[in-house]
Amino acid sequence: xAVVSQHPxxxxxxxxxxxxxxxxxxxxxxxxxxxYRQFPKQSLMLMATSNEGSKATYEQGVEKDKFLINHAxxxxxxxxxxxxxxxDSSFYICSARDPSGTVFNYGYTFxxxxxxTVV
Amino acid sequence: xxxxxxxxxxxxxxxxxVNITCSHNNIATNDYITWYQQFPSQGPRFIIQGYKTxxxxxxxxxxxxxxxxxxxxxxxxxxxxxxxVYYCLALLSGNTGKLIFGQGTTLQVKP
Lengths: 119, 111
Known about the structure:
The complex is a heterodimer of chains A (119) and B (111).
Chain A: E1 4-7, E2 10-13, E3 19-25, E4 32-38, E5 45-51, E6 57-58, E7 67-73, E8 76-81, E9 90-97, E10 108-110, E11 114-118
Parallel strand pairs in A: 2-11
Antiparallel strand pairs in A: 1-3, 3-8, 4-5, 4-9, 5-6, 7-8, 9-10, 9-11
Chain B: E1 9-13, E2 18-23, E3 31-38, E4 45-50, E5 53-56, E6 61-64, E7 70-75, E8 84-92, E9 105-110
């Protein structure tokens, strides 16, 4: 089945620095990927839709200059948290859709997530 | 996407059958009911999907009545490893866009 790899799984950074998270579709090409953020004991909150070769589409309330998204190839999207602060500490999850996905689930696959801790 | 409503949490014991209900009063004709499972510190995983009546796979069963305004995810003989958050979504047929998750149901299985 379709696999989405997310790296790193955990990262600790100092306040004010930037962190890059990678999301790769391993055995399929994804023109669209999605980035979510999840705080403890809360649901996934969609941050943005990453489109290959064009600008990402951000959800209302998400700062595009703080959460930079680059989708330069059909298998890789990156999320960079710029000038990170402790309030950015969260669990970040990416998702991609395999266009050849079966009728069931429509091909959506999620990465294993990245735990970001800003100290 | 149709709004879905689930219980926030449920408790069960090992070996019991667990039924999690989901309300989707405004479900559209072309919406499919889809359930995801999420373990702590992991991304969601697809469990099951259905349109009407009953669907069963190796993990769970999904019951959808004729009016499709609700659905029930049934987990047979749960074990401790089934402790997770379960999300119910109503997905438009052929959906290629974003998935919006509701609050989900936290299932705690006790020994």
